[in-house]
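Progress narrative, work stream C.
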Amino acid sequence: MLDKKFLGQEIKKQRRSLGYTQSEVSVATKLSRNYISDIENGRYSPSVDSLSKIAIFF
């Protein structure tokens, strides 16, 4: 099982390295900005569908 805090940190690191805001990821993936923030801060573990949307965007 992948640690949700680690996963969130990696998503945030990737987003920042590509120069995207949480809002841009939100619009492109059709996931709420609050949900993106919660994932990045380790409060939620994303579903496979959500993680897939984020990965495809990146």
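Work stream C, second folded protein:
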Amino acid sequence: YMKERIQFGKPLFKQQYLAFKMAELDLEIEEAKYILYKAAIEKQEGRPYGLSAAKAKIACTDAAMHVTTEAVQMLGGNGYMKEYEIERMMRDAKITQIYEGTNEIQKLILSGKLFR
């Protein structure tokens, strides 16, 4: 969409603000992946992974929600239309923050460990 949509005489991806925003979102996704991989490696190696898993759930679900919200914003009115997949992705991202233990519960787990 950002390559095709022309605004102010150039594609959206050539607008510096949007290009920088995309770079930030890409970085946020990458950071969440590494936190997730750390938890997965700890589990795979048979080490305690509960805290890493809690951190991964928070990081990944918050990143998913933030990235999809920003994507909807970048698409403008099209972001809410069912023809664009981002509308469903945003709804899916929100539910991931809720099921399998809300992010607030994950924060209780983490803070409990920090203050022992």
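The domain at 17-114 is CATH 1.20.140.10 (Butyryl-CoA Dehydrogenase, subunit A; domain 3). No further action is required on this item.
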